[in-house]
Structures are given as C-alpha cells and as structure tokens.
Write a structure and sequence with these properties.
It is built from 13 helices and 11 strands. By secondary structure, it is α/β, with parallel strands linked by helices. The strands form 2 sheets. The chain has an 8-stranded mixed β-sheet with strand order 1-8-7-2-3-5-4-6, with helices on both faces. The protein is globular, with a radius of gyration of 21 Å. α2 links the parallel β2 and β3. About 35% of the residues lie in helices and about 15% in strands.
Length: about 375
Amino acid sequence: MIPLDQIVQGDCIDLLRSVEPFADLVFADPPFNIGYKYDVYEDRKAYDEYYRWTRDWMTACKRILKPTGSFWIAIGAEYAAEVRFIGRELGLTLRNWVIWHYTFGQNTKRKFARSHTHLFYFTMHPTEFTFNDKAVRTFSDREREYNDKRANPDGRIPDDVWTEFPRVCGTFGQREGWHPCQMPEPLLARIVRVCSNPGDVVFDPFSGSGTTAAAAKRLDRRYAGTEISAEYVKNANARLAEIQTLRETAAKNNGRWSEEMLDLLNGAYAEFALPTDRLYANPHLFTRFVERFHHRLRHSGVEGEYSSEEIWRQLEMLRKSVRLVKIRAHADEPASLPIRATPEYETEPPSKKTGRKDKTGLSTLFS
C-alpha cells in the first residue's frame, strides 16, 4: 500500500507492483529523455529502453487507478506519439491532447524555438469519469467582446491550447531551487479541480519538487507520490508540511483574505482574461466573474462565498500593489488609478439572497 499524504522514496514501477486501485487522479511528468541533469536518474536512454520503461510505468499507474479515474501525462515532442500509442495499447480513452504553450522557450540556432509541452488526458472509462466543468469555465468571446445574449451563462470550457500558465523559470520566486525543473502550480490546480473532488486521492509517480502534491493538498485532496531521489523526497515533504488547504486558511483567518486566497483570485483573473477596467464598466461581466470565482472556491473545498464588494476590493488592492497578473491579450492594469468603488451588480448575487455576510465579506450559506 502506498501511504497517503506523503511522498515515498523508490521506483514507482516496483512500489506499485502489488498495489490495489486507490487513486482518483494520476498526474505524471516523467523525464523526457533529453539529457536533463537530475541527481540520481540518467536522462539519456536508448529509444527501445525508454519506450519499454514508459510502457512499464504507464501500466503500473493504470493498475492503481479507480475504474472512474483520470490519467494525465506531460511529455515532450520527442515521445508524445509513443505515449499516445501506449495509451491506446493499455485501453485508456483519450479525452484531450492538450498543448501547454509558454514563453521563455529553449534557445535554438537551427530550428524553431520550442515553447510547448504535450499534456495527455486519458480516462479509465469512456463515459464514467469526473469532469467538473464549472471549476474551469471562463469567458467566451461572445461574452467578453461582443456582449452577445446567446452566450452560455455558465461560460465556456477552455480550449485545448493553454497559454495562461508561464513556465517556472530559475529566477522566479515560486521556483524550488533544489530541483532542476518544476511545473507551475496553477496549471496543476486546473487539472486537480476539474478531474477530482475534495477528499479524492491524487497520485504522482515522479513527484520531483512536489508540485502535484502541493496543488492537491491546497485544494483539499489527499495526495500520494513516489520519487527515486532521496534528496528530492526530503525536500518535497518539507515543502508540503508548510502548506495548508485553502479551507483551513479561510477558517484560520476568519474569512479574511490569506495569501493563498489572493493567489486563487489572481489565477482566476489571469484565466478569465478580463482587465479591471472592463469589469468596472460592464455589470454583466463583473456578475459572471464573481459567480465563476465562487465555483473555483467550491471545487477547492472552501465553503461560503465572498461578497462582490470584497472581491472587487481585493482586485483593486492587487492592482494598486502591482501584483495583479498582466493579461497579454489586453491592456496592462494601471496602478496609478485610485481604488474605485464596487461596480454595479447586474442582479443580486446569490450570497445576498441566501446567506449572511460577516464583517470580513465571507458569506455563510445555508441550504
């Protein structure tokens, strides 16, 4: 049995050999076989050896997935086709072949610079699986650009090309300096929210810096992981020991905004790609922004809702402190503007109809 809520040291193929299904979601970011420098793993295998190894660990991960489980794999272009083929051999259903596009790609001299990673989304069953669409829905162009009343009021599911998540480069503050490569936690959070529920188990066979487990823990999921490097295991578990769930931080702060909650708001703002001046001028868009942020809260294990006034105030404070994410598709947010009053709400937000709001702005709902 793989213990929960910790990362253990060892080869995932060996450790998973006799384990019964326990995981609702597996996310794997294996070595790409491109000569990357890890501390104990040699990332330069012959083609046939790497292919056999990939098939073996994918088989092991499929074995520990529940019948309704989901299996995500990040891989480079060199072996993307092989991962797709092995998935078909194993009887997995391909739901999406996602392209994660990022800037700060590799510098090249005799070919175009690479600036993407392949993300395969498989499920164990073709129709029975978890997909929390409202946890990831964003704004369609019909809403954002054309004010078209035919737009789905729930928003749209993101495309299969993801541009919202920059790479975590070596100089970035969120980079764990003891590991050579690291996935952005907001990208993992999108996958965890949409393909699992609070209390589900998320497993990572190549835990590395522990980012999959960090996203899972923060969003109120159980997590488990394996990693062959004893040094990475020690550092990742130390990192995870410092993380609290969003639900815990909300309760601890009595509804006041923690840094983790501000990160969630900032991440939603980046995914929604609507600058504050557009939200300020359009009550319809602001209403939908608040509703969709609350969906992200619920799928992060947080009960209750923030008032529209409090959400707007925090957006404005982030803008004034120059911490608001820059949206490439739109104008930058000027920090020089004074903090503006809350935009008009198109209709009464649900929190005002069904709950009571405390001084912090967090509303307690009753069914």
